[in-house]
Amino acid sequence: MSSKRLYIGTRLQRLGELDVMRVARELATEVQNEELDRLVSRSSPADDAISGALARFDKDVVHQRWTSALDRRATDPEGAITLARTLLEDVMKWLLTKQQVPFDEKAELPALYRLVAENLNLAPDAHTENVFKRILGSCQSVVESLGTLRNKLSDAHSPGPLRARPQPRHAELAVNLAGAMATFLIATWEARLP
Predict the structure, then answer these.
(1) What is the rounded CA–CA span in Å between residue 93 and residue 185?
(2) CA–CA separation, 181 vs 91, rounded Å?
(3) pLDDT tens per residue across span 96-146
(4) CA 86 to CA 160: how far, in whole Å?
(5) pTM for the whole structure
C-alpha cells in the first residue's frame, strides 16, 4: 500500500496545478470523500483556464494574486474582492509598462483601463460594429464596477457599522470577472505581438 501511495505521489508531483485539479475532479466523480468534494467544489469551471493564462503571463505576481483571490472567495469575501481589483490593476500596469505607455502610479482603475483600452484598440468608440461597441462598453463598466465594489464592500476601507457585508457568491463573481477581464486584456495584447 505504501509503494502505491509513493508511486501516485510521485506522479502527481510531476503534474502542473491545472492537471492535478483535473485529476481531483475525475477522482471525486468516482470516489466519495467529503474532504475531496469540499476542495474540488471550491473551484469554478473558469478557474483552470484563467489560472493557466495568468501563470503564463506572470507567475510571480499576477498568478500569485489570482490564487490568493481564489483561496479567499469562500472564507474571506472582503479580502477576495480587494485582490480581484488589485489583480486587474497589476495586469493593466504591466501591459502599459510593456507598451511603454506612461501612466500615473496613483491613477484609479478606470483611468488605467482607458489607457489600456486605447492602446489595445478596445475602446468602444474605436469600433463600428454595434455588438462590439456594446461588449467593450460592458467591459469598461465591469472594470469601473469592480473598482467601486472594492471601495464599498472590500477590506480596503473601514467597514463602519452599517455597511453591507459581501457573501462568498459576491466574491466569486468579483474574482471571476476580474480573472476574465485580465485574461481578455492579456490575450488581446499577445495577439498584437509580432
Answers:
(1) 11
(2) 10
(3) 999 999 999 999 999 999 999 999 999 998 889 999 999 999 999 999 999
(4) 22
(5) 0.75
